[in-house]
Amino acid sequence: MSLSLHQQAHYSLALALLALLFPLRERGCWGLNPSSGDLEKSPRSDPDPWEGLHRNKRSWVWNQFFVLEEYTGNEPLYVGKLHSDVDKGDGKVKYVLSGEGATSIFTIDENTGDIHATKRLDREAQAYYTLQAQAVDRLTNIPVEPRSEFVVKVQDINDNEPKFLDGPYLAGVPEMSPLGTMVVQVAATDADDPTYGNSARVVYSIIHGQPYFSVEPKTGVIRTALPNMDRETRDQYVLVIQAKDMVGQMGGLSGTTSVTVTLTDVNDNPPRFTHKNYQYTVPESLPLQSVVARIKAADADIGSNAEMDFRIMDGDGPGMFNITTDEETQDGIIILLKPLDFETKSSFSLRIEATNRNIDSNFLSLGPFSDTTSVKVTVEDVNEPPVFSSPLSKMVVSEDARVGTSIGRVSAHDPDNSNNGIRYSIDRNTDLERFFNVDAMSGVISTAKSLDREANSVHNLTIFAMESRISLITVSDINDNAPVFAIDYETLLCENALPGQVIQTISAVDKDEPLSGHRFYFALAAPAAGNLNFTLRDNKDNTASVLTKRGGFRRREQPVYRLPVLIVDSGSPALSSTNTLSVRVCDCDSDGVALSCGAVAYTATGLSTGALLAILGCIMTLLVMVLLIVTMRRRRKEPLILEEERDIRENIVRYDDEGGGEEDTEAFDMVTLRNLNVIRDPNVRRDVTPDTPTFFHYPSTSRPSYKSLPDNVVFREFIWERLKDADVDPSAPPYDSLQTYAFEGSGSVAESLSSLESLSTDSDQNYDYLSNWGPRFKKLADLYGNSDGTSVFS
After folding, report:
1. Which residues does residue 323 pair with via DSSP β-bridges, in sequence order?
2. Is 283 helix (H, G, I), strand (E, B) or coil?
3. What is the mean pLDDT of residues 526-552?
4. Could you tell me which Pfam families the record lists for this protein (predicted)?
5. Is 682 part of any domain?
6. How far apart are the C-alpha atoms of 555 and 601, rounded to whole Å?
7. Is the pLDDT of residue 377 over 90?
8. Each residue of 72-106: pLDDT tens digit?
9. Does residue 148 share a domain with residue 249?
10. Nearest to 541 by CA among 565, 513, 517, 575
């Protein structure tokens, strides 16, 4: 049986044939069938591939098939053709395919032996498929040829871009490195077949990061492209590296990664003192081992490369001072070793040197890695107490000495240069009986009383010596006042103002008086910093100018602008205040003179909807207030009885339910029935009109007034009176429920606030003025206006 290979006429046909022809010839896989011209292969080939021209023809002729990956055609991809010598073309032979992907990926035409791929193949998923082919009798399924195995290899195309599996990269290189110093090596992988074509051959290039760095195209090694890169100038670079397959040719796929390169520090900078001359002042009373001064030398390096040591090179007063290094801040600390005396030496001059602790020999040419400075220490005089010429003075006096006899003299002097006068006094705790006096100016001690040796033979006195001097106390100023506007500015802005025009120059005042003078800083406060109308320009002379940002201001749109101006002083700590500058928009003439300012009066037809609503709201509010006032006055003055048999102070609510009977003790509140401050006539019910007839009357002398009865009797009498009236009243409800507001308790200190009390005859209200209000108030005048003082109900 022979196998012929017929693949589709794609662009890969020539490549596939070339790839097959030479390797197969070398392995002795090919033979030529003289009769058919087919390519034949023996399953066990002899060493010489060309001896097939003289051998007997074998049954099977087969070959390795190729299939392009990622085929996107609509029709099944033709792979090749199987053919057996037994097949005479009469349809008796059937071809059967088995193995990897048979029937699911690869199909065979059982009549012709044509093989097709029905699915899209991916070489990166599976590079080749091993299949078995067999020719069988169509009727009996008996093999007519032995089973033979062949391989379908998936031919690679460039469908995968290079990828940096370890990216992004972080790398470091010392600063000041020479040209070509290796930084880091990057690597990209390509999933395509590295043995076929250039699909997996990658070259590297740098997209971003030139001219500082370069990359080797084949190895991916990144190197410095500039010498002596300085970390203090720039310490970090971000590179973008590209890897492109197809040896970088056009049409190749590419991938990128980022490489962050940090320049590490080396000791290439010497220390430098921030000042060449330092001056410090210390009091002469400064304790030993105290810090006299801290001096700083700046080093642009970091870490151990910035560490330094200090030493005193020379200076007057040897042994007076020492200097050490603060390991945290790298400051030089000058320490006092011996006492200071202003009167002996008032100043010291020192020469200080700072040297790097860790010097790199590679950069000695950039040295020296040290610096020097001068330090002057001034000793400040301190007011020292007077010093006695002798700490102990012994004096002798006779016990018969007269009062005022001089015994001796003490002497003290002021060690300060001022040499102030001395005043003397006796510590009276050592002379309680006041036997002695001392002259305040001369220090002469004299007797003040008669002495008795037998009573006290020795007197121990303590003498005080004090400086006599005039002290002038000056209160030093601190920054405790914020700056404000110098005056109340009235800023006018013409409607025809141009952009950039100065409309106001402002200044500020501050109650404080700093030694260096005032320095104010002006700026617009945060709410107005980004406004589109005005800007502020600081003139650097404690003034600022307000300028317009635009033109076309209109009073009709906005008559007044308010600018919050922030003013900051230069004190420590700095204080600030926000001042509001009012800018009024004005109508100006051609010379810029304001003619009229402020809001423009609008006509009725020009009112906006908001203005109309505001006016309407005001009118409605006024109407409601007037109605409330009228209603309150009417409720205060109208009579209690408006209709016959109507009680406005007893509200009987019917619910058509039965009362609780005699055991119901919660039907009413007893507290509301109590008011001991009102004397009522028991014959007159104030909760009903006087004209209403009652069926039960008490004689005027049958009961005492409520105010003269005890509390418990008052409640009992009042309740009985209401019960009897209800019993004889045919219109009373058939249940025990009573609500009244005519009898109030007496718990309020302010007494009763009820408007019902206004009807009492002792009321101080006078309603005679109602008769002057016209005929519309005649009814009220008749009810309330009573000039002769009689009751309205009489």
Report:
1. 334
2. strand
3. 89
4. CADH_Y-type_LIR, Cadherin
5. no
6. 10
7. yes
8. 778 888 888 888 888 887 888 888 888 888 888 88
9. no
10. 517
Choice among 243-257, 439-453, 523-537, 596-610 with the minimum mean pLDDT: 596-610
Reading the block at residue 588, the tokens are: 């100006």
Tally Cβ neighbours within 10 Å of residue 81. Answer: 19
Closest CA to 64 of 7, 139, 122: 7
pLDDT score, position 363? 84
Whether residues 151 and 169 share a domain: the answer is no
| Domain identity same for 176 and 258 | yes
Note whether residue 721 is domain-resident. no
Of 299, 319, 323, 320, residue with least CA distance to 310: 323
Q: Who contacts 38 (Cβ-Cβ below 8 Å, separation ≥6)?
A: 2, 3, 4, 61, 83
**Are the C-beta atoms of 343 and 418 separated by less than 8 Å?**
no
Q: What is the average pLDDT across 358-366?
A: 83
- Transcribe 136-173 into DSSP letters: EETTT--BSS--EEEEEEEEP-S----B-TT-SEEEEE
Residue 11 has pLDDT above 60, yes or no: no
Q: Helical H runs in 28-113?
A: none
Output the average pLDDT for the chain: 77
Distance CA 525, CA 246 (A): 62
Q: Residue 364: which CATH number? A: 2.60.40.60
Residue 111 lies in a domain: yes
- Which residue among 264, 293, 310 closes a domain? 264
Q: What is the pLDDT of residue 546?
A: 93
Q: How many domains does the chain have?
A: 5
* Domain coverage including residue 284: 272-380
Is the CA virtual torsion 192, 195, 196, 197 positive or negative?
A: positive
What is the strand order of the sheet 347-356 is part of?
277-283, 370-380, 347-356, 308-315
Residue at 738 is within a domain: no
Task: Point out which residues pair with 426 in neighbouring strands.
Answer: 463
d(CA 645, CA 665): 28
Same domain flag for 490 and 588: yes
Q: Residue 558: what residue type? A: Q
Instruction: Dump the DSSP string for 713-772.
Output: HHHHHHHHHHHHHHHH-TTS-SSS-----SS--S--TT----GGGGGSTT-----GGGGG
Query: Would you give the distance in Å from CA 444 to the centre of its chain?
Result: 76
**Helix or strand or coil: residue 355?**
strand
255 and 342 share a domain?
no
Q: Same domain for 417 and 442?
A: yes
Answer yes or no: do 376 and 390 share one domain: no
**Residues 223, 195 share a domain:** yes
Which residue type sits at 571?
A: G
Task: Tell me how far CA of residue 217 lies from CA of 187, 188, 209, 241, 410, in angstroms.
Answer: 11, 12, 15, 10, 101
For residues 386 and 415, what is the distance between their CA atoms, to the nearest angstrom?
Answer: 6
Question: Which range among 191-200, 239-248, 469-478, 701-710 has the greatest average pLDDT?
Answer: 239-248
